[in-house]
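Recall that a protein's primary structure is simply its ordered list of amino acids. Everything else, from secondary elements to tertiary packing, is in principle encoded there. The following example makes that idea concrete.
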Amino acid sequence: MTANDEIDDVEGGSTATVWAVFGDLMAGLLGAFVLILVFVMATQLELAERLKSEVAQRQAEQQRREALERALAIPLAAGRVSLADGRIAISGSVLFAFNSDELQPEGRQLLQSLAAPLATYLATRDEVLMVSGFTDDRQMRDSSRAKFADNWELSAQRALTVTRALIEAGVPSKSVFAAAFGSQRPVASNQEAAGRALNRRVEIAPMPAPKDSTAGAKK
């Protein structure tokens, strides 16, 4: 073997090594590219599914509000109740005298007019009604003589009164429950009489029915 042959063998070996390293590098880059591509596609798929779910949820919420508006078309047109964000609001002065939990005749009549459309609405949906009582932020006067200890108790009793009235008027008892918020969650300023009047209210809000936790245990 001549010197030139030895040089050719060395050069050939070096070239083969370079190509081998280059091939490994390209294979590594290709593998990394594939992983990045898979990650990007998975992320896009997840975002698409999330967007689809949000759109479906918004559509369902819109359909629920439209169904509620149709059910309450008459009392809404008469201005006896208001509907905002899927919550039916009734002025406390329509339902109760000041610091009282006893329904006024006008309030009882209004609840009776709401019971039938609400029962019809619930019959076609897996929902329940949360009846919430709210007050302004003024404290009870002369608590030693007052019927209620504080605004929490007053709002609770008013919510219970409305709940019982709806049940008596035909709303299924399993589809309605009471909640109390006292002076929390005001919708207007308590600095003025008009704002305090708006805060003294009862709201009726449809929401998804709770799942029966005992169903799985009985199987």
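The chain has two domains: 1-63, 72-210. The helical segments are 3-71, 73-77, 92-95, 105-123, 151-168, 193-199, 214-218.
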